[in-house]
TrEMBL record:
InterPro entries: Kinase-like_dom_sf, Prot_kinase_dom. GO terms for molecular function: ATP binding; protein kinase activity. This is Protein kinase domain-containing protein. Residues 89-355 form the Protein kinase domain. PROSITE patterns: PROTEIN_KINASE_DOM. Residues 1-83 are annotated as: Disordered. It comes from Blepharisma stoltei.
Length: 367
């Protein structure tokens, strides 16, 4: 990634003003504070786009052809067993039954702020730090057990520079234990607490996370829990941006039923549709809006309040948007589209002019 000149850095520093805004650090509440001036308040060369209406359909992994039947699917892709259940039974035999204590020593339980089920461990075989997530079988929805097995099977095969790596899966008694790579560095919540994020850097973060999401969605894997705390930025080892903390539908369902909803959850989630790829785009749109404006797009911390908030249309006018380009406002409107069927997909967002035209800056902290 290219580096900004020292002159540009000094100029931008002089133009920044201090402001503080509470952000939701987890699905329930992000407690980081935005200390830089929201980038919407800074001067920017704007590009006028011709007025037009936007309507986006579902991504290819969401969309099924009309008159598509199970029989047609079997004809297109025949399988000797042709049942998900059989294939998952074969795969589950490969899960390790070795007691965790033989391979790992616990460094810290409840390691990640956003979920108590994550622990930081040391791999005794290699000396490498890793993260283990505990999944209780009793928490998994009745009837979706096979889908869960398929998803973690697919996830273990993922190889993308912007997605946390799943190394191993252990099945012990009534629990699964998922062993992920340990990510050093700062969360996006911590980064905006310590320094300013400009348009170019915001575009870089969006580009990398959208790239990772597009890869996941293409492999039938939604994230379902994106927020500031689940985006990791490692400036010491190649300025790598990674998405972590993948969530499962029953975890989202529990939060909604416990009335612990946040605006990272799209309208469809509040309407009990828990596993759509479009929900990830909504969450990322909330993050981009917050970086730009220094505040969340919607208030409310329970289902009823948020449902009322979501009915209000976001108007990209006034002094708050004076220095925001039409391209950026256009992208935000598509990411925060109420109707998930019309919401922009990760693939289309990657090709949006605001993402493509902004040059990636260095993520290394300025001296």
């Amino acid at each position: 990634m290219g580096c900004c000149s020292s002159k540009e850095t000094e100029t931008s520093k002089k133009n920044l003003e201090s402001t503080t805004t509470e952000l939701l650090r987890s699905e329930i509440e992000d407690k980081a504070e935005l200390k830089s001036t929201p980038i919407s308040k800074r001067s920017q060369t704007t590009t006028k786009l011709p007025p037009r209406r936007y309507s986006r359909g579902l991504s290819t992994v969401d969309r099924k052809p009309k008159n598509f039947t199970k029989e047609k699917a079997q004809a297109v892709n025949p399988s000797p067993q042709n049942t998900f259940k059989d294939s998952t039974k074969q795969y589950i035999k490969k899960f390790s039954k070795t007691p965790l204590r033989q391979h790992f020593s616990t460094i810290k339980k409840k390691f990640l702020d956003f979920n108590d089920s994550f622990s930081l461990v040391n791999d005794k075989r290699t000396g490498v730090k890793k993260i283990i997530k505990e999944v209780k079988k009793s928490d998994i929805f009745e009837g979706v057990y096979d889908n869960f097995i398929k998803e973690i099977q697919n996830f273990q095969r993922l190889d993308h520079p912007n997605i946390v790596k799943l190394y191993d899966i252990y099945e012990l008694g009534d629990n699964f234990f998922l062993v992920y790579e340990y990510l050093p560095g700062l969360s996006l919540a911590d980064k905006i607490h310590h320094e300013s994020i400009g348009y170019s850097l915001a575009s870089t973060i969006m580009r990398d996370i959208l790239s990772g999401l597009n890869h996941c969605h293409g492999n039938d894997i939604p994230h379902l829990g994106i927020n500031f705390g689940k985006i990791n930025i490692n400036t010491k080892e190649g300025n790598i941006i990674k998405l972590l903390g993948f969530t499962y539908p029953w975890e989202i369902k529990k939060k909604v039923e416990a009335n612990k909803a946040t605006c990272y959850m799209g309208p469809e989630i509040l309407n009990k549709n828990y596993s759509l790829f479009a929900s990830d785009i909504w969450s990322l749109g909330v993050i981009l809006y917050t970086i730009v404006q220094g505040k969340l797009p919607y208030k409310g911390k329970n289902v009823a309040d948020l449902k009322n908030e979501y009915k209000k249309e976001i108007v990209f006018e006034g002094n708050d948007w004076a220095f925001t380009s039409d391209e950026l406002k256009d992208l935000l409107s598509k990411m925060l589209e109420y109707d998930y069927k019309k919401r922009i997909t990760a693939a289309d967002a990657l090709n949006h002019p605001w993402i493509k035209n902004n040059k990636p800056p260095s993520l290394t902290p300025k001296d």
